[in-house]
Amino acid sequence: MIIKLMAVTDGAHDTADLLRILLKVHPYVDYVQIREKNKPAGVIYQLCRELVKEGVPGRKLWINDRVDVTLLLGLQQAHIPGRGLPLIELQKQYPDLQFGTPVHSLEEAVQAEAAGAAYSLYGHCFPTASKKGKAPQPLSNLAEIRRRISIPLFGIGGITIDRLAKLKALELDGAAVMSGIFSAKEPVEAAKKLKEECLRLEAI
Amino acid sequence: MIIKLMAVTDGAHDTADLLRILLKVHPYVDYVQIREKNKPAGVIYQLCRELVKEGVPGRKLWINDRVDVTLLLGLQQAHIPGRGLPLIELQKQYPDLQFGTPVHSLEEAVQAEAAGAAYSLYGHCFPTASKKGKAPQPLSNLAEIRRRISIPLFGIGGITIDRLAKLKALELDGAAVMSGIFSAKEPVEAAKKLKEECLRLEAI
Asked: Which is nearest to B84 in space by CA: B74, B105, B70?
């Protein structure tokens, strides 16, 4: 299986800038996670509405935390952060929706699967500027997690082109990339190169 | 009509403290607006679930901004802040729910009513610590707003016991009080005294 890519927005771009970047980045990635914790709900709503209007397929968009924005836009999935709404209650109320979630250990990964998560996002995998001073989660856990859960497993945190091979070797389903795309001088070029590496690894 | 009271939480208390205060304050107020912009959705959910479990009537609770928390708890109303989700879209998707909204001018008040708002919250009315350095909205607008809209009209901002008579004279339906309750040394006592003044004004 080819490694899937999720572009995770970093909250550092203004809305017009972000819209412009995402419209060019999305063709190179499988999913876009809108993680804009400091933007008001109305702004996130307008941004995502614009993305869909401009051709980003709704199934690609995972809005972080804001299930209400997700519902109002008629989208079918959301990413629920660690201190977000309870996954089990969400699944009960919205059985037709999918919810992804971050995990930091085998225990959390098993719980996430049991709670009906659509995917687990394990991290952070490598040292990264957005988690400065925090040691990465041990990659050694990933082999065990991979054996124990069958839902899609993504790595996040410090993902670079060189590190995609490592994730592939660990049989992960995908990589979620924040600063590797959104802090890059040329976000579109960065996304394109990540995609090319995924394709190259698949062909080996 | 007796002036209604809405207690608006100030985001300055930790969850356990807030729960304790609200359980004692709520009998003295008609509504509680949970305005905890820096608490994660999961925390707001747990807080409100606990409030309802401990006997606060659901119809009293207006959660600020988080329509998803509102829906997951099966509540019937939410307060939508200025940069929150679009009122018209919310009303379209959730015709059985009620949404209150802040206004700062006659124009906004008329728009809010046209958009189907359950109430308008005009402010800030008086100088207040939470809007330091910002001049209050002119109270003179309120007479015109009162004439032009028929949905409930609340005043917010710097509401004290002494100022309730002014709001009553302007024929407002209610007063929303944040620091007057939550920054008070004795929030429960403060709420009780506000309620007593509402009752006194009604009896004049």
From this structure: B70
ipTM higher than threshold 0.90: yes
Q: What pLDDT is attached to residue B81?
A: 98
**CA B30, B36, B39: angle at the middle one, nearest 5?**
145
Name every chain A residue with its beta carbon within 8 A of the beta carbon of B64. Answer: none
pTM, rounded to two decimals: 0.96
Q: How confident is the model at residue B127 (pLDDT cuts 50, 70, 90)?
A: confident
- Nearest CB among B43, B69, B84 relative to A42 is that of B84
Nearest in space to A157 (alpha carbons), one of A121, A190, A186, A187: A121
Residue A185 — φ and ψ, nearest 5°?
Answer: -60, -40
Q: Taking the CA of residue A31 as centre, how many other CA atoms within 13 Å lie in the half-sphere pointing to its CB?
A: 27
- The CA distance from A81 to A99, in Å, is 10
CA contacts within 13 A on the Cβ side of A23: 15
CB–CB of B84 and A43 under 8 A?
A: no
Q: What local confidence, expressed as pLDDT, does residue B10 receive?
A: 97
CB atoms within 10 A of CB B119: 27
Task: Enumerate the residues of chain A whose CB falls inside 8 A of the CB of residue B72.
Answer: 67, 85-86, 89-90, 93
**Over residues A7-29, mean pLDDT:** 98
